[in-house]
Amino acid sequence: MSIALLSDVHGNIEALNACLKHAAESGAERYAFLGDLVGYGADPEEVVATVARWTERGAVSVKGNHDEAIEKRAGYMNDATKESIEWTRRTLPAEGRAYLSSLPFVIRDGAMCFVHASAALPARWDYVDTPAVAQRSVEAARTTYTFSGHVHDQVLYFEGAQGKWSAFNPTPGSPVPVRGHRRWLALVGSVGQPRDGHPAAAYTLFDPARERITFYRLAYDHAAAARKIRSAGLPEAHAYRVEKGV
Amino acid sequence: MAEPIAPGVVIDGFHVAERLYAGAQSEIFRVTEPVREFPTIMKVPRIGALEPSENLISFETEAIILPALSGPHVPRFVAAGDLAKAPYLVTERVEGESLENALKRGPLPPAEVVRIGAAIADAVHDVHLQDVIHLDLKPDNIILKPDGTVVLIDFGLAHHERYPDLLAEEKRFAAGSAPYVSPEQVLGTRSDSRSDIFALGVVLYEMASGCLPFGIPRTMAGLRDRLWLDPVPPRVRAPEMPRWLQEIILRCLEPAADDRYQSAAHVAFDLRSPEQVSLTGRGHKSRQAGLLGQTARWWRARRVQLQVNAKPRSITPNAPVIMVAVDTTHPDDPRQPALQRATARVLSLSPEFRLICVSVIRGGPGAESSEDGTSSAHLDHRVLLQHWVEPLRLPARRMSLHVIESPRPEGALLEFARRNNVDLILIGAPSPEQHALAWWRSVASGVTAGAHCSVYAVRIPEPGLRSP
């Protein structure tokens, strides 16, 4: 039984549908959405409605900083991002806004912890971008496996010899053994706005029984997603990011 | 932890029988049940208050990497126990003798060094093709099977390119066995497949001379000498060794990885084709560098230290073995220039290629043996082959020429390709209109259908077949 881990959809319904289809075909039976369903992209309503449906059927869903910014102004965001947040707030029906504000910051389930940023002070939105930060998050999570987004890359942090933490860059599509006697933190990648120079959507599949994790990158119609951002009158920079994966 | 694993214990359905081996890091037991098509053993790490924790990390590394490996050069993986509760590893028991044991009877004659050395290189190449570097290649870990092939065991220090490296931060443990580790391993690099080629060089040196080229360093300072120390040329210790074998060994032992063979397949090929090895100063060397020379090497080693860790490099080397099958019976066929162009194009893609040019001539069952290479037909075709490859202007050490006489040319070509770890076969494919070449056409289609690797069938478009 595999769990599909999807984060940072950012209002990109084309990318979300591509990932959900691939996950279903790959035998995913559970789903976890790790936050930032909205912001940047042109389809927040459809994305939130889709994820809300999955949540009703038992999927895990936690809050991201863009989701929080819909209900609470975020002074730290730049102007273009604020513009897209304000547009989303206007576009999203009350039902969708209520769904986003109902989301918890952290969900723990057995050996797994799901959180958008760091499990240590999750509402501070720290980027888990070094082994030391990953270690702090894992220690706060107190679980074997911690799954996060926020940082749009796919990285696997692990506890090596003598408790020293390291970062590993996975090869897409290649399963990685993650034995349960050791602790792991996976950044699952961004579904809707990858920033590593490849526009392909990113998500991750975790198989707890076989103790292995596979990071995926999927081709999807990113040109359509970019086109919609432009025709909605949203900042050009966000369309360009989706188009180029930067 | 539950009951310790010992003879008579049944764990997860495995019946543990007598202990076969007791080492510093692990014990090995025979497994009697369940019965499989091959005999099995259980390896158990030594853990406890007095045992270093590295034992467990290296055990875990093996338990992760071995299931990812397959093929005839590694033991078959059966099961791994829960590392937190009962760590064990059940694998195939490889039938054969360890090279360590074989070497107790003394150094081996050059012919044996070459035969076994090429079999080890085949095994190393096969593991590299699966994105794994062994990093602890030594006679203990090399099993000689009765059929002449080699199995590599003990992947406890190995590195898998697509898995997190649990040993990456473990400096004390990063190096393999002191006499065999490469200079870059001494500096902490665990991701260069050419480290295995260095260790292979030490093993070849030891097999041939009975001596270790760098002795058995006991200290880190002694180990760091590996970065520059010039070993005594093996022919000084084993004078019966041919120069070409010394050339191969010393090329494996170059301190800078860029100066070594870039692929174990190339080592295997040179060992099997001594007449094709071009000698450099390495083959002719008759003494160790003097004080001045050693100082110069030490100075150059500083450069190596700076380069190491510079950028990660793929384990699968971009050093392909390319075989071109040339129909020397029809030297004027218009396919020949097309095949030459295709070959030049393919070679331009990687600087570290190895080109094998082969001509197959049809020898009936009563034909002269091709083994000695002296039949007059054989020599004629070799000259034609030389003429064919001439326009490509390749350095001698990048290519070799072979004429094979066989009643079954496609079978002979395929066997030759497999034995030499060929990555790509180029072959001219005559068009259906070329009635005179019907024989070669059937060779080309047989090779395409039966090859173990990629095949590039070179055709010239027929005017009538081009789209209007």
Give me the CATH architecture of chain A, please: 4-Layer Sandwich
Classified by CATH, the class of the largest domain in chain B is Mainly Alpha
Work out the helix count of chain A. 8
What is the domain tally of chain B? Answer: 3
Oligomer: heterodimer
The major β-sheet of chain A equals:
6 strands, mixed
Question: CATH topology of chain A, which one?
Answer: Purple Acid Phosphatase, chain A, domain 2
- Count of the separate structural domains of chain A: 1
What's the helix count of chain B?
A: 16
Across the major sheet of chain B, the strand order is 1-2-3-4-6-5
Gist?
The complex is a heterodimer of chains A (246) and B (468). With 246 residues, chain A is of the alpha/beta class. In chain A, 35% of the residues lie in helices and 23% in strands.
Defining key terms:
heterodimer, A: 246 residues, alpha/beta, Purple Acid Phosphatase, chain A, domain 2, six-stranded mixed beta sheet, 8 helices, B: 468 residues, Phosphorylase Kinase, domain 1, Transferase(Phosphotransferase), domain 1, Rossmann fold, 3 domains, six-stranded antiparallel beta sheet, 16 helices, 17% strand, globular
Task: Give the SSE layout.
The complex is a heterodimer of chains A (246) and B (468).
Chain A: E1 2-6, H1 13-25, E2 28-33, H2 44-56, E3 60-61, H3 65-71, H4 79-91, H5 94-102, E4 106-109, E5 112-115, H6 131-141, E6 145-148, E7 154-159, E8 165-168, E9 176-177, E10 184-188, E11 201-207, E12 212-218, H7 222-231, H8 236-244
Parallel strand pairs in A: 1-2, 2-3, 5-6, 6-10
Antiparallel strand pairs in A: 1-11, 4-5, 7-8, 7-10, 9-12, 11-12
Chain B: E1 10-11, E2 14-22, E3 26-33, E4 40-45, H1 54-65, E5 77-80, E6 89-92, E7 97-98, H2 99-103, H3 110-129, E8 132-133, E9 142-144, E10 150-152, E11 159-160, H4 171-174, H5 183-186, H6 194-209, H7 220-224, H8 234-237, H9 243-252, H10 264-272, H11 281-284, H12 291-307, E12 321-326, H13 335-347, E13 354-362, H14 376-389, E14 399-406, H15 409-419, E15 424-428, H16 438-450, E16 454-458
Helix pairs in contact in B: 3-6, 3-10, 6-9, 15-16
